[in-house]
User: Fold these one by one.
Assistant:
Number 1:
Amino acid sequence: MLTLSPTQRRALRGEAHSLHPVVAIGHHGLTPSVLHEIDVALLAHELVKVRIFGDDRAEREALLARICDELTCAPVQHIGKLLVLWRPNPEPKERVAKKPAPKKPVAAKQVRGPVKPKPRTARTSEGPAGKRAPAARRRRNDPKAVPPPREARGDQARRRRRAAMS
């Protein structure tokens, strides 16, 4: 099991805050396949959250200790049913530098002529191709059509209605 200093643990807790659990331990407990999945996740991410669906706190503590012993990782945090584990990735192997691919010549952009705007058709109250325009546009275009008066709102309207009733 690895050990962490309090400052390292604090920094890792901050990084793990936004992570979602990657592995879940169910009612079958810590099986070899679950251990393998935690190992794969630690290889891929270094920092992993694991969710345990058991209710016994002592059992969760024992699972955390067993995981850390078997996978040689460090416990970062145990909060409720979540465990946060950290293991540094092994040193990456030296990569052979690839030769950059030869660059292809860039073709010159074709320049098109000026774009002509489409001719606009005059809109009538009937609209294009004999379709009827919406009622609001028909009213706007018809000088004889007067929209119905809106009913007043608020205190002034209430006063007017009370005055009209008495």
Number 2:
Amino acid sequence: MRFNNLIKSIAVLIGFISLFNCKEKKTEIDSNPVTYEEINITSKDIEGIKYTDYALSNLSEKQIENWLQFQELNSQIEILKKGDLSFFNDETELVTTFIKELKEEIPEKLNTPSIQARISVLETCFFKLEGIKDLKNLDKKTILSFIKEVLISHSNLILQINKKLEQESQKIEKP
């Protein structure tokens, strides 16, 4: 019993000695954090992002001509490519409503699980980019990485639409 008390006392003593001998780490906190609005993203910055940008095929163009929300999506992506993040600076409700309408208005021929999945990925990337506007101490590299995710997800959606319609247009005769 006395031996256990001695061990406990020594452990507590070592703990106190360790606690007081630890060097205090000082972390520097910037008193003037950089905000999202203060970082100037230009079209040149976005042009420097490396990704494959797919264009809609002629067949795809015809299929989406009445899908107004997709036309608006393409417009917003073009605006984003110019460095204008105003769409993502607005209220979350605007982005939520936009994506909801985009999903609801999918033309029947394009309403497949693979295209719905690409829209869901795009939605996630939109919300990630929209969500960083309230963060402090952002750098340009971080914002550009979120923009890159949006551009890639949009390009993958276009690729999926092209693939879907190309596959349907092929007439394969079975022997």
